[in-house]
UniProtKB/TrEMBL annotation:
InterPro entries with a match to the protein in the record: HATPase_C_sf (IPR036890)
Highest taxon listed in the record's lineage: Bacteria
Protein name: Anti-sigma regulatory factor (Ser/Thr protein kinase)
Organism name: Lysinibacillus parviboronicapiens
Length: 299
């Protein structure tokens, strides 16, 4: 079965892509899928992660995945070149499409990270990369590192999967960091509905981010992790969070210092959990500068 990529693959079109390869019971629609990239004109980090996660999901269910794409793409703004530079084709085809393809300094490689490796990866790979990107001290990134650590905890505790697929990009001119992580576990609504069986998937996402709400007795639970992550990113870092799980989608952002939630129902189905964090890096740089000034004053 040939599946054409949408013209634009961003977070708003992820479910549109998923609906072409799996049913609502999380079963593959076909034994063989040909992904046609010739229709793709634009892709964002969210699209990279969701696409990679979908392919990994198909592989695990013995679905053959073939690729159709343009060759000899040299325009750095072409989505195929962007995917090639991210490591996408090397991961799935065992080679880069263009010899000159290389990881861009403003991105961190597309990869799968297991829970057991997550804290080492955060401390030794992600934090040093981001500190270099922003020109700040690694200690300034403690809140961001903690937020991502909570997400890995939640993947282990609640998704039934032990691995998260992730990708990040820094947009220096926009003062923006976009970090995406996804898994194809049971999804947040599945767990929430054990407590609130009659709620919709979007209502389940609202319950999931409530302070103190949990479906487990573990101190590292879903409620604490997501609430802490959202408070830090949305309030302290003036960013936003996008959660997509099952038929539910939730956007969280701040307005005049207050957390605003915007839940809605999706016609498409995401059979796990996808999260996108957008962080205002100007706030990180400001915090780093204030810390440096305080240290100089104390000295």
């Amino acid at each position: 079965m040939k599946v054409f990529m949408p013209r634009e693959l961003d977070r708003d079109r992820i479910n549109e892509l998923m609906i072409n390869v799996l049913d609502s019971e999380k079963k593959p629609l076909y034994k063989q899928v040909e992904l046609d990239f010739t229709t793709l004109k634009f892709i964002q980090p969210a699209g990279v992660v969701a696409l990679d996660n979908m392919i990994e999901w198909l592989y695990k269910r013995d679905v053959r995945v073939d690729f159709t794409y343009y060759t000899n793409i040299v325009d750095k703004y072409h989505p195929i070149k962007y995917l090639d530079d991210s490591g996408f084709f090397e991961k799935h085809l065992g080679k880069r499409l263009v010899k000159s393809a290389t990881l861009r300094s403003t991105t961190i490689s597309l990869q799968n990270v297991a829970y057991e490796e997550s804290f080492s990866w955060l401390q030794n790979t992600f934090t040093p990369w981001l500190a270099q990107q922003l020109g700040v001290k690694k200690t300034t990134l403690g809140n961001i590192e903690m937020c991502l650590g909570e997400i890995f905890n939640n993947i282990k505790d609640h998704s039934s999967e032990n691995i998260g697929c992730l990708y990040a990009q820094h947009y220096p001119q926009k003062k923006l960091l976009t970090f995406c992580i996804a898994d194809f576990g049971v999804g947040i609504p599945y767990n929430i509905k054990r407590v609130f069986p009659d709620c919709s998937d979007s209502e389940a996402l609202l319950h999931a981010i409530e302070e103190g709400f949990t479906t487990k007795t573990s101190p590292r639970n879903l409620g604490a992790g997501l609430y802490t992550m959202i408070k830090n990113i949305v309030i302290n870092l003036k960013g936003s969070v996008h959660i997509n799980s099952g038929y539910g989608i939730l956007n969280v952002y701040s307005d005049k210092g207050a957390i605003v939630t915007d839940p809605f129902h999706s016609d498409g189905f995401y059979p796990g959990t996808f999260l996108e964090f957008n962080i205002n890096t100007a706030e990180v740089e400001k915090e780093d500068l204030e810390t440096e000034e305080e240290e100089e004053f104390e000295w």
